[in-house]
Amino acid sequence: MDADGSALEAFADQMRVLQRECPWKRQQTHTSLIPYVREEAEEVVEAIESGDPAALCDELGDLLLQVVIHAVIAEEAGEFTLDDVARGVIAKMERRNPHVFGDAVATDVAQVEALYDAAKAAEKAGRAAAAGHPGDATARPD
Q1: Within 13 A of 18's CA, how many CA atoms are on the CB side?
Q2: Rounded to whole angstroms, how far apart are CA atoms 26 and 110?
Q3: Burial of 35 (0-12, 13-18, 19+ CB in 10 A)
Q4: Which pLDDT value is given to residue 137?
Q5: Is 25 in contact with 19 (CB distance < 8 Å)?
Q6: How far does the chain reach from its first CA to its final CA, in angstroms?
């Protein structure tokens, strides 16, 4: 990708045009695209297992297409944008890696995993409380 993200933005713009102009794409929903998300994720796994960098690059592009088309569908519905997705994952990585982006200290993998698990548990507790299920706050993180 270009250092300024222009290739990714150009791809998102291309998907917006396809969503507007292609009858098949226009009728797709998050639900109707589930089989394609699964298929592309499986193909990424197969490419990794094959050890072929060119195949992995190609399959990651197909999986990225799924991310972008879902973001475009959501954007058109006024739900969220691709930038919202990116901002969300940036914030998530900052929360889950306080030893890199904050003041926490982790000198080995076990400490990193403990910090990550604690952050993920706090996120899950916050979602449970927001949904009105505070009893779920103590559940083991995924």
Answers
A1: 15
A2: 47
A3: exposed
A4: 43
A5: yes
A6: 31
